[in-house]
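Lab meeting minutes (informal)
Scribe: AK
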Amino acid sequence: MRRRTRSCVPALAGVTYNQMVVDELSEAQVDRIFQALADTTRRDIVARVIEREQSVSALALSYAMSFAAVQKHVAVLEQAMLVRKEKRGREQIVHGNPEALRRAARLLDAYEDLWRQRIGSIDALLDENTSTD
């Protein structure tokens, strides 16, 4: 059973947004996703493994950092459910999770809708003030 302490997108009186998008992710999940995507290397890893699955060893060859550092980046992405690892023999194969990226995109879309509604309300107030002058 999933517990939610508060919604990811704040509710405003008279403003509507897609509640289904908000209910998909807990605050902790949202934090993990965006913290994971805040790093350039992790974004690059996600792009690479969405295009084609790769072993952690193969990923490590692409970066000027230690194997352990790449492993840590992959672990952060795995905790955010942006990738998953599969053990094949002695290797850990990393797969992208496009659905997690779609959920993050839907959340950003919900924020955009919220801000567009706020801008619309401000525009209406300005128009109202202009017409009474």
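Next up, CB showed the second protein from the same session:
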Amino acid sequence: MMRVVFSGPGERNEMGRALMLGMNFAVGMAVFSFLGYFIDQKRGDGAIFFTVVGIVAGLAYGAYEVWIVIRMLNVQVKEAEDRRKKTESET
């Protein structure tokens, strides 16, 4: 069995964000795809139009989630840089 070794508490937090992002993307794809498939089955005409729409909507949702996480990480990096500069200027 593989054991993951963390060098610090920050890595655990980053790994959690990555897992959350992957889960949000996968669940969004599954939900939207299933909804599209369900609508296509209820219509009963053999078309896959709403399934494709659901897949595209799932991809759009996944891209939105990635954008949100990237914005959050950029803010955290900027705050860390500001703290570092402030600490350097005080010494």
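CB comment: Residues 49-90 form the longest helix (42 residues).
No objections, moving on.
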